[in-house]
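sry for the spam today, last one i promise. struct tokens for design, 355 residues
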């Protein structure tokens, strides 16, 4: 067993620093995971890579190993582990909570109210951009044999977040769905909405490279270049009615308004994209047409566990949305590419996931 390992830290000036760390030893209820796949999230770019923006739950502690979308294999289990053991393939739910506040008891450790014990991997404790990672057993989900570690990394944050949002607006075969913002979260929304039965999936996106990725994914019936004609075009594609459901994954003011206005009467809208603002007129845009807007942040660990089961049942592969894979030595290139937006999902991978 190696004593030292390499890990990537984010100084906050659009660079990545590789540093040597001690390989940690798992304590009571903890495991040591050999990292296999660790994907980069939009929030890593927005709040850490470009500059350290976040406060409180979004605050990155300088010098910690980055990466909050980890999947790997347990190589050492500390005393007191009850369910997980050496060789188990796992996904890490990316926030470790206190376990006893109301939010943790609902499984939403993302919203844990304990200042002392809420620590997100890759933010307030070491994350997945290293050869090994220490995690608490209670934060783990079994990764089924049918799925790869890169499938698992995709679930750890992005797919879980999307699934929660789509469950809130209830997607079924009844629905035409509009998705604004076709980065990794928008693509994941299309993949899950399709698996859940949605029939007419329309996407809008501003960046040309992302339009190409979306078109090539085969997940969309129509991909539109973001613009002021989007509401009319979506109505034209839905018999003049608009979609039943929409999801904003862009955090863009105009795109959010498109979601609201291109959704038909009694329709449901979910906002997944973080940051920015939204200008709309309550009476004509939502009240008179009986529309509902949901906000949705990450998911609960039990829902993530059910999502993993369903991904296998549906026969879909989240890793297909990864357009670029890098070894840890090239983490700098990986983050720079993700920051450029000229890509789908970007992953830092190890061992058999390097391909
Ligand atoms: Zn994330
Ligand atoms: Zn808590």
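last one done:
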């Amino acid at each position: 067993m190696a004593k030292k390992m390499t890990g990537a830290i984010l100084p906050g000036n659009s660079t990545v620093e590789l540093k040597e760390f001690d390989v940690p030893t798992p304590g009571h209820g903890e495991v040591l995971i050999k990292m296999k796949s660790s994907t980069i999230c939009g929030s890593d770019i927005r709040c850490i890579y470009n500059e350290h923006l976040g406060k409180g739950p979004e605050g990155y502690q300088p010098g910690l190993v980055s990466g909050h979308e980890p999947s790997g294999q347990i190589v050492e289990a500390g005393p007191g582990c009850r369910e997980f053991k050496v060789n188990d393939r796992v996904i890490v739910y990316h926030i470790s909570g206190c376990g006893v506040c109301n939010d943790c008891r609902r499984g939403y450790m993302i919203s844990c109210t304990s200042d002392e014990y809420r620590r997100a991997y890759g933010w307030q404790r070491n994350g997945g951009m290293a050869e090994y990672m220490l995690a608490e057993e209670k934060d783990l989900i079994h990764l089924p044999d049918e799925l790869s570690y890169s499938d698992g990394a995709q679930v750890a944050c992005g797919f879980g977040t999307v699934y929660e949002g789509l469950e809130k607006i209830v997607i079924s075969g009844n629905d035409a769905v509009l998705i604004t913002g076709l980065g990794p979260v928008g693509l994941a929304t299309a993949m899950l909405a399709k698996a859940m039965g949605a029939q007419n999936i329309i996407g809008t996106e501003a960046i040309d490279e992302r339009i190409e990725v979306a078109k090539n994914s085969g997940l969309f019936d129509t991909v539109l270049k973001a613009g002021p004609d989007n509401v009319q075009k979506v109505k034209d594609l839905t018999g003049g009615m608009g979609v039943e459901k929409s999801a904003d994954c862009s955090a863009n003011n105009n795109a959010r308004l498109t979601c609201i206005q291109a959704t038909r009467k009694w329709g449901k809208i979910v906002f997944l994209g973080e940051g920015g603002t939204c200008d709309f007129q309550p009476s004509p845009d939502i009240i008179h047409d009986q529309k509902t807007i949901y906000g949705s942040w990450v998911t609960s660990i039990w829902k993530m566990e059910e999502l993993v089961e369903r991904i296998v049942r549906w026969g879909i592969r989240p890793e297909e949305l990864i357009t670029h894979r890098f070894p840890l030595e090239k983490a700098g290139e990986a983050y720079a590419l993700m920051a450029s937006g000229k890509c789908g999902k970007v992953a830092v991978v190890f061992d058999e996931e390097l391909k």
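The first strand starts at residue 4 and ends at 9. ok im logging off now
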